[in-house]
Write a structure and sequence with these properties.
With about 700 residues, the chain is α+β, with helices and mostly antiparallel strands. Helix 2 packs antiparallel against helix 6 (about 480-485), helix 2 packs across helix 14 and helix 8 (about 515-535) crosses helix 9. The longest helix is centred in the first third of the chain and has 18 residues, at about 25-45.
Length: about 700
């Protein structure tokens, strides 16, 4: 067989570069070392160092916004800067936080911890118990990996608890049932992992008990994606929600009462559900006929939990979608349901409240006031624990030329007040933000946001990006890296809203899912063509970047639309769609892409598996493929193999793989800046843009 004939369905592992999937294999690491050396020798010149240091200095600025979450009376923050590259976990009070220079109490210095223990520690997340912030579980990651080590921490003494809860490295989650009992879902232990690498059991883990002796209270098949659990303190007594997630979009939900009684909720498996007190709300992914009434996809329904468990199906409709009006999530705060909405990509937030008289009197709704209706607005609950919320909300407001403002909306009804304002990190004089639509291959309108000089030259150096997957909505955030190193120097940026995302709801996501993923890629190519049609630029001046699911996108631009781009930057990518389900968390994404082991689904998967579709002698633009060795979500073998195959065919394909970073661009600000700047230097050089 020739290089591009394999692997096949009959011989799926007949892959000449399979050895590059050995993450720590000697031969694979020799390949990585040699590739890194060549790439850095070519692109990490004096200009690279200047730009990297400039960007790292922006990330390290002392006046950047310290994003916080409230637990009890304190606001907690993880802060990174040049002095604290791994970060310090710290806290303050709201009164202090309002000051220009608040006093922070340091709880843990991650750099000191890493140095003292000789480990590549980063702090991933923290969990504590409502009403008692004296103890917390710290989740420590090596180099940014998803797998974490769990350790109990005494917040008052600022030290780890001797003989406290400790769990070795694994993909884990847990919540406090009480001071001495954890609800644990972890892949640690023989037979405890699903085929996706996540937890397949929920265990009651008691203080002082070896974890392998913890009682298993719920177990799923290894073929399911994962199970997870959380403790809910918003009811009359603590209760737990246990979620059996069969795939990325389907869930079976169980309620565990304080006495341990388990009740399976009689719901469709493809709903989002959020409970609070005696209410629960759900968003439908498909039409649902219940109690003689059919509710459309993306409708939000609410009902009394006690009434539902007693057999009632008298739901109240709180939200109905439009063709380009879609819900972006839902959450509770102080007994009220907040609905974030995109309406023609404009942010809207509605607060729905049950009447004091209960369900019979209906619900009221109001729209959050004082927030912009253009740009990006994100709103979330101030308090980490829902049971402690008084209704206070935080909002983050920005656009591509306006740095973020962190705002407090007290009790969810007061006018927003600015708590912190991020600094301007680049000169935006003469730049404008405009919205446009391209027409895709099947006639669908594809929105995109363009930022750059007001006057078109026909030769603009354009940076394009998109995602187009998993129902994730892309928003035009303020981006210091692009602002300082692309826009300020005369370039133009474009962010596209592809099908596969969630900008217009489930129908938009489903159109770019499974076989439709190819349409998502057609959308991106249509935006590139529209930039040329509008006189913004020409194809050879368009540089494009995409990561993770966006890695499929970028490699398909290489193999399917090479004539529309001048250079491509593919990061932490998914590429080999024949073997992706066998690599790390890949099996968890079958609901997005399909199962290559089923011939009828491989029929569509192979149409956008660029690893198999790459052929010699094509007009492919230069490409830089970059990943990280500690990415335990998307296997670094995808990037390694694609680079090796393209190089063997004689293409200009570069490769870069730092040791740390996880499913991201680096473990600290300098590493993240270096990763990004390497990509920018490559893209600029290959589209012929000298911006010195």
């Amino acid at each position: 067989m020739s290089l591009d004939d394999r692997p096949t369905l009959e011989a799926p592992d007949d892959d000449p570069y399979l050895w590059l999937e050995e993450v720590e294999g000697a031969r694979a690491l020799a390949f990585v070392e040699q590739q890194n050396r060549v790439t850095l020798e070519k692109f990490s010149d004096t200009a690279f160092e200047r730009d990297r240091d400039a960007l790292a200095a922006i990330y390290d600025r002392p006046d950047n916004i310290p994003y916080v979450g409230r637990r009890g009376k304190h606001l907690y923050n993880l802060w990174k800067d040049a002095k604290n590259p791994r970060g310090i976990w710290r806290r303050t009070t709201l009164d202090e936080f309002r000051k220009a220079s608040p006093f922070w109490e340091t709880l843990l210095d991650i750099d000191q911890l890493a140095a003292s223990e000789g480990e590549d520690w980063l702090l991933s997340w923290v969990t504590s118990q409502p009403g008692d912030q004296s103890r917390a579980i710290l989740c420590l990651s090596r180099g940014g990996s998803d797998a974490v080590t769990l350790r109990e921490f005494d917040v008052e003494t600022k030290s780890f608890v001797a003989d406290g809860f400790v769990l070795a490295e694994a993909k884990s989650g847990l919540d406090w049932l009480d001071h001495d009992t954890m609800l644990l879902s972890s892949a640690l232990g023989d037979g405890m992992a699903t085929s996706s690498g996540y937890a397949r059991t929920v265990r009651l883990w008691r203080r002082g008990q070896p974890v392998d002796q913890a009682e298993v209270i719920f177990e799923i098949s290894a073929d399911n994606m994962r199970v997870y659990a959380g403790v809910d303190h918003t009811g009359d007594a603590p209760r737990s929600w246990i979620v059996d997630q069969s795939d990325f979009f389907n869930f079976v939900i169980w309620l565990r009462d304080a006495d341990g009684t388990m009740t399976k909720l009689d719901l469709p498996t493809d709903v989002w559900m959020q409970a609070h007190g005696d209410w629960f709300a759900l968003k439908l992914r498909k039409p649902w006929t219940v109690a003689g009434r059919t509710h459309a996809t993306d409708t939000v329904l609410v009902i009394s939990l006690s009434a539902f468990l007693a057999g009632s199906r008298d739901f109240t409709v709180l939200f109905e979608p439009g063709p380009r009006r879609a819900l972006q999530g839902l959450f509770w705060t102080a007994g009220k349901l907040v609905l974030p909405i995109l309406d023609e990509l404009r942010p809207v937030f509605e607060i729905c409240s049950p009447s004091a008289q209960g369900a019979a009197k209906g619900w009221t709704r109001e729209t959050l006031r004082g927030l912009p209706t253009i740009g990006v607005v994100d709103v979330w609950r101030f308090d980490h624990h829902e049971s402690e919320s008084n209704g206070d909300l935080l909002a983050n407001v920005q656009d591509p030329l306006t740095p973020p403002s962190l705002m407090l909306i007290e009790r969810g009804v007061e006018s927003p007040t600015v708590l912190k304002q991020a600094p301007k990190t680049f000169n935006a004089d003469g730049l404008v933000v405009t919205q446009h639509e391209a027409i895709s291959i099947d006639g669908e309108r594809i929105p995109y946001v363009q930022t750059g000089p007001a006057k078109e030259t026909g030769d603009a150096p354009v940076y394009m990006s998109a995602y187009g997957g998993f129902g994730h909505s892309v928003k035009p955030y303020y981006n210091s890296a692009l602002g300082k190193l692309w826009l300020e120097r005369g370039g133009t940026t474009v962010q596209a809203n592809l099908r596969g995302g969630g900008e217009f709801g489930t129908r938009w996501h489903d159109a770019g899912r499974y076989a439709g993923k190819k349409l998502s890629h057609d959308d991106f190519a249509a935006v590139a063509a529209d930039l040329v049609r509008r006189g913004v630029t020409r194809a050879k001046r368009i540089a494009a970047e995409g990561g993770s699911n966006g890695g499929i996108l970028i490699t398909n631009m290489l193999t399917r639309y090479p004539e529309r781009f001048g250079a491509l930057f593919c990061t932490i990518p998914l590429v080999d769609m024949r073997r992706y389900t066998k690599l790390l968390a890949g099996a968890s994404w079958i609901a997005e892409y399909g199962d290559p082991d089923k011939p009828e689904e491989w029929d569509w998967l192979q149409t956008y598996s660029a690893y198999h579709n790459a052929k010699p002698g094509q007009p492919y633009p230069p490409i830089l493929i970059a990943t990280t060795r500690r990415d335990d979500r998307v296997h670094p073998g995808h990037a390694r193999k694609m680079a090796a195959k393209l190089q063997a065919m004689g293409y200009e394909a570069w490769f870069y793989e730092p040791a740390a970073g996880g499913h991201g661009y680096g473990k600290d600000n300098k590493e993240r800046a270096g990763f990004q700047v390497l990509g920018f230097r490559f893209l600029k050089s290959r589209i012929g843009w000298v911006d010195e």
